[in-house]
Amino acid sequence: MKRRLAIVVCTAAALFAFSCKKDAKVVPPASPGSLEGGLTSFSASGQLTDADIDTVYNTVTFVLGDSADYHAVTINFTLAPGVTAKINGYQVQSGNSVDFTKPETLQLSSTDGRRPATFTVTAQTKLQYFGIAGTLTARKSLNRTYNFYMDQFDGSTYEGFNCGPASSSMAIKWADSAFNKTPAYARSIFLDGGGWWHTGDIQGYLTRYGISNGVDTLADVDAVVKKEIDAGNALILCLDMFYVPQNMTAYQHIQKFYQANTVGWGHFILIKGYVKAGNNFYLEAYDPYSDLQTYAIVTPGQLKGKDRYYFDGDIKVATMKWWPYAITVAPKGQVISSLRQPVNFSIHRPVPQASGR
Predict the structure, then answer these.
(1) Residues of 158-195 as b/e, b for ≥16 C-beta within 10 angstroms?
(2) What is the mean pLDDT of residues 47-66?
(3) pTM attached to this predicted model
(4) Domain 39-130, what architecture?
(5) Where, residue-wise, is CATH 2.60.40.2340 in the chain?
(6) Which fold would CATH assign to domain 136-329?
(7) CA–CA distance, 58 with 60 (Å, rounded to integer)
(8) pLDDT at res. 135
């Protein structure tokens, strides 16, 4: 009985397999000259990354630097045999110069007329690649010709909660190119036995090196930051980083790049510029919490806390939850004209340990 049942099962399986093979559709290979893989490569002069060819959404995207001439970008591409290309209806050849001040339409056609394809080709700015959304309408950065960024993770004993000493040291180096002290040295001056720096410690250290500073309210983040940056002054903020979203996209420069997943994650950062794009306003920051993390492309080797962009709405919440003021910092030899509080003003709210995460 078992043997007869096995024969029946095997016979049924064989018939099912045969019927599947019989019904299966054979997809014929693409004929020569069709648009199966019609655009095989694309690049642009001065591109900072390899162009991304997306055949699902039919887009081509590449990134150009800030100094690039978007009105005349030389493009190079290869097409499958029998395929030709047009941009906005005009025949285009590899090596031609194209205006990419706005997205352009690349139309592909083939000699056999099969499956025409259209790609939207976009030249991104470096800021857009970094994650800045919208069309740039205003930007100002108080960068220097020399490096003044400092990673709080410098191998010193208290590097895990060194954001105060690091932000102060960056601010003084920004203000005075001759300054050569490290965050570890700053720690030796204030709270050398460890502990959280207060806003008053920040101001005291700035004053120690002759850097004029004051305190301004952050009731209107955009207005205060724009006013001070336009006046040539940097700012130091004390905020709870729990309220600033984390960005997991490794190559982008917006929002925080590390975990701060508990309320009360106080932190100091230096603000040295702003970007307005569309309706969005971003603060350009030097965040000392790099922990030796670096970018791999576009700005390879750059520490992730350097030139980080924080959205004003998140900064508003994070400062209101922690310390709703900004310490304004003038260049060496200049005086803060918007001084609202005496030098040692502070509500003495401590900055918690960063704990080395």
Answers:
(1) bbbbbbbbbbbbbbbbbbbeebebbbbebbeebbeeeb
(2) 93
(3) 0.81
(4) Sandwich (2.60)
(5) 39-130
(6) Cathepsin B; Chain A (3.90.70)
(7) 7
(8) 87
